[in-house]
Design goal:
alpha/beta, 8-stranded parallel β-barrel, TIM Barrel, binds NADP nicotinamide-adenine-dinucleotide phosphate, single chain
């Protein structure tokens, strides 16, 4: 699969990456089968994907543990990306959410980052993390200066525990502060053909400065595969319950739009998921689409999008259709 540079790091990542949030299970994603998740990770790597994204918060360490087990025999074929900044061991940081009896806080305090990095290395069964990303940014209630966070991350890089530093869910103003303190190589924002808000700021900002973008939820958590019909229901705690596009009246409009793209799938001999991923990775400023998968067939299908190339007219037509949907009704 074609690769692109992770900013100035010298690390190359594939256009399609594997996201492992769902592999963590828990209330957001429900039951998961670890053996099946490991097969999915192997399928992605065997299909040419090299970037695997995880985080301590995905199943309170469970996703990292499963990824760690899966990559033991193929560590050198993987660019391993994880995160820091969501903390639940004590009351450092500002409260973000509660789940499974834990209070999760945002903390980019150097003390908590160091503890997190050691725990991630242990769970991932490795001596180096290729990309360490700050998961969510500090808030005014626990305002660790970005310069302090960066100083800590750069020391960890000098110690060889992490190879490169990235951010997630960061604004251009926050990235300005990171860049004033050191080198960030990537940003991980939310982006899909239905949620294009970062086209106004984050994408051009990163493109201008040579910062890679690893975009998340490109399939709108499966809705854009066309495989989630009107009958699927999600519990109140499910991640998909929070996405307005899944509400019946909105979902109907999305599925109707996808049905109108069947001729594009036929012409490019690809599935709907592949069509949508191909559109996503072809947008200006997008380096890689992080596609979540916990079944081998899904991981393999998503990886296959790396060889689907759409022409400008196809992409313009898809954009027009998505724009015509407007914002999801609430
Ligand atoms: N930095 C952040 O704050 C942040 C936030 C969200 C996500 N992320 C990262 O980005 C990754 C991707 O985002 P995401 O998981 O939210 O959304 P996504 O990639 O849009 O969707 C993933 C889900 O869609 C379904 N799916 C994927 N491919 C499929 C296929 N080919 N056929 C059928 N179903 C398919 C699967 O659901 P089922 O497994 O339920 O079938 C899968 O778990 C995450 O795993 C995580 O690494 C980061």
């Amino acid at each position: 699969m074609a690769t692109r540079f992770l900013g100035s790091s010298g690390i190359e990542v594939t256009r399609v990456g594997l996201g492992t949030w769902a592999i963590g299970g828990g209330p957001w994603w429900g039951e998961t089968d670890d053996a099946e998740s490991i097969r999915a990770i192997h399928a992605a790597v065997d299909a040419g994907v090299n970037l695997i994204d995880t985080a301590p918060a995905y199943g309170f360490g469970h996703s990292e543990e499963v990824v760690g087990r899966a990559i033991q025999d193929r560590r050198d074929r993987v660019v391993l990306a994880t995160k820091c900044g969501l903390w639940w061991d004590d009351d450092t940081g500002s409260v973000f959410f509660q789940q499974s009896g834990k209070t999760v806080r945002r903390s980019l305090d150097p003390r908590t980052i160091r503890i997190e990095v050691e725990a991630s290395l242990r769970r991932l069964g490795t001596d180096r993390i290729d990309l360490m990303q700050t998961h969510w940014q500090a808030t005014p209630e626990a305002p660790t200066p970005i310069a302090d966070t960066m100083a800590c991350l750069m020391r960890l890089r000098d110690e060889g525990k992490i190879r490169a530093i990235g951010v997630s869910n960061a604004t251009p103003a926050q990235m300005d502060e990171y860049l004033a303190a050191g080198a960030i190589v990537s940003c991980q924002p939310r982006y899909s053909i239905l949620d294009r808000s970062i086209e106004a700021d984050v994408l051009p900002y990163c493109q201008k400065r040579g910062i890679a973008t690893l975009v998340y939820s490109p399939l709108e958590q499966g809705l854009l595969t066309g495989k989630i019909g009107m009958d699927r229901q999600f519990g109140a705690e499910a991640a998909r319950h929070m996405i307005p596009w899944f509400r019946p009246e909105n979902r109907r409009r999305v599925l109707d739009m996808l049905a109108r793209w069947e001729d594009l799938c036929d012409r490019h001999a690809c599935s709907m998921a592949q069509l949508v991923i191909a559109w996503t990775v072809a947008q200006p400023g997008v380096t890689c689409a992080l596609c979540g998968a916990r079944r081998p067939e899904d991981a393999e299908e998503n990886a296959g999008a790396g060889s689907v190339h759409l022409d400008d007219a196809d992409m313009a037509r898809m954009r027009r259709d998505a724009e015509a949907l407007g914002q999801p009704g609430t």
